[in-house]
Design a protein that fits this description.
By secondary structure, the chain is mainly β. It has a single domain, classed as Ubiquitin-like (UB roll) (Roll). 10% of the residues lie in helices and 34% in strands. It is built from 1 helix and 5 strands. The longest helix is centred in the middle third of the chain and has 7 residues. The radius of gyration is 12 Å and the shape is globular.
Length: 71
């Protein structure tokens, strides 16, 4: 592993990303549309206004939740 990278989990799948990146940058890197999703990092919900403030660290677990239609 490159010393400038970290390993994280995204919906249970291992990913390697650059370190010192915020959640918004990670989502962009992973080509994830930010409009219609909710995010939890290490099981804690992250409000959308904090995406640019939250730095993702080695072994963090990101869970991306999308709305489900129906009822």
């Amino acid at each position: 592993m490159n010393e400038n990278n970290i390993n994280i989990s995204v919906n249970g799948e291992q990913k390697t990303v650059e370190k010192n990146k915020n959640l918004s940058e990670i989502l962009t890197f992973l080509n994830i549309e930010k409009r219609m999703i909710s995010i939890a990092v290490n099981s804690d919900f992250v409000p959308r206004e904090q995406y640019k403030e939250l730095i993702i660290n080695e072994k963090d677990a990101i869970d991306i939740l999308t709305p489900i239609a129906g009822g």
